[in-house]
Structures are given as structure tokens and as C-alpha cells.
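#struct-help
A.M.: can someone run this one for me? Single chain, 148 residues.
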Amino acid sequence: MAMTIHVDIVSADKPVMSGQATFVVAPTTMGEVGITPGHTQLLASLKPGEVRITDEQGKTSHYFVSGGVIEVQPLQITILADSALREEDAAAVELATEEARLKALETKGAIPASAEVDYFRLQNELIEGAERLRWIREIRGTRPHISQ
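D.P.: on it. C-alpha cells below:
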């Protein structure tokens, strides 16, 4: 029997996932981190991207987080995401709506300099929107097989 660690992913509005894992990969602001049972304690900020969780049977599940924090303890990993999507959520998302949302954010950046715009916040929203759209497209079809 493989060693496991308990993993919880919680978004601001709902629990997303809870279960045992043998390996977890998360997108931190300092780079992607791989976590196995027995990993040293860690607290890190997450950037928009994919969390991959491998269970005891070797099946890998994919989740999208828009940011948040990850806490690694000896027996548990907790991911507190600003928002999160499961693979099955990707199928329910309307691509045209996501593309229009991203286009609207890009257009917002073209506002005259005299207008008050929080460009740092806008940049983060653009990054999150582009990553979310890329992830949804990958989950829906052309996801390359990633070997771990």
C-alpha cells in the first residue's frame, strides 16, 4: 500500500475536493511544487493554474485554481483557493462566454490614461482569465499526456 496524505481543496464558495493522494502538484508564485507524503511543512501563495492530484490507484485528477494559498502539514495538504474548477466543471463552462470575458478585460486596458484604472489588478485578472481559458480548452480536448 502506497503512503498517502489527505488533501482538501476549498474555494471561497464551496468545498471542491477531499481525499487521499500519493502526489500533488500545485502552481505557487515561486514555481510549481510537487508534494509527496512526508513533505516538509510549507505555506505558499498560489498563482492561477492547474493542481494535479494523483490517488492511490495512480489516477490523476486536474483542478484549476485562480489563486489562494497552500498549506502543507505532516498529514494534510489544504488548498484555499480564491476560486476553483474541477474537470467536470470545465465541460459546463461556455467557451464563448469565457472568451468574451477575457476580451472585455483586454479592452479595459485600453482606457485613456486620464481614467482611474488599477492596472495591477487588471493585469492579475487578465492572467487568471487567460490561464482559466487555456486550462478549460486543454481539459475539453487537446490535453497532452503528462508523465510524472
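A.M.: thanks! The chain has three helices and ten strands.
D.P.: also worth noting: The first strand starts at residue 5 and ends at 11.
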